[in-house]
Amino acid sequence: MKMKLAMYVLMFFAILSCNSNAQTKKLSLEPEKGKAIAVFAEGCFWCSEHIFEAVIGVDKAVSGYSGGTMKNPSYEQVGTNRTGHAEAVAVYYDPKKISFKELVTVFFASHDPTTANQQGPDRGSSYRSIAFYKNAEEKKIIQDKVKQLTATKVFPNSIVTEVKPIMDFYEAEKYHQDYIEKNPNQSYVKAVSIPRYNLFKKTYRGKLKPKL
Fold it and tell me: How many domains does the chain fold into?
């Protein structure tokens, strides 16, 4: 009886895992004409998405997974810290209104890039800091920003942000998209996400969209 029950439990989680995987998909990183896409990982993607979407020139931000090798990873799989992926956001923007360089500024202004495999209360490689680039020009912009922040001692500790070429980006499950907007009273959102967003608003010197 115990063996049969264990078998059903395993089958249930296997089905659940398959269903979770089915909810993720690989996104094309080829932008529409006149638009551009950038990818960043800076801890929980709920807050990252909310922050980038507040910046003028950003059309939208999509929560997802990047930096690893597993295809179509689920939230649960990424959370094991064994897929190589980190929670990330694909930022769709208008380069006529905001530059990649300014998005890099937003990235470093909206999280702590000195904590390895950790962002606030979240720990593990899936929460590590990564600035992705598509070409040599973007790579240099990121590296120059790191040098500038280091030289001016903006952060008390060394920056540990990974600078990596963007390979694949997998859109996260639907319930993760626009999570803060849809769940403003969720405990993590109130205790972690909103305070982080408010701190960003106080320290960022760029242009933000008017509050609706």
Answer: 1
> Is 47 assigned a catalytic role?
no
Give the integer Cα–Cα distance in Å for 141 and 73: 30
Residue 6 domain-assigned (yes or no): no
Instruction: For residue 191, give the DSSP letter.
Output: I
Task: Give the burial class of 99: count Cβ atoms within 10 A of its Cβ; 0-12 exposed, 13-18 middle, 19 or more buried.
Answer: middle
In a domain, 43, yes or no: yes
Element of type H or E holding 50 = helix 45-52
Q: Which CATH number goes with the domain that contains 28?
A: 3.30.1060.10
pLDDT digits (tens, 9 = 90+) for 149-183: 999 999 999 999 999 999 999 999 999 999 999 99
Structure-block tokens of residue 177: 């998209």
In a domain, 7, yes or no: no
Closest of 145, 85, 144, 73 to residue 109, by C-alpha: 145
Q: Looking at 36, 38, 41, 44, which residue is catalytic?
A: 44
Has this prediction a pTM greater than 0.90?
no
Residue 169 counted as domain residue: yes
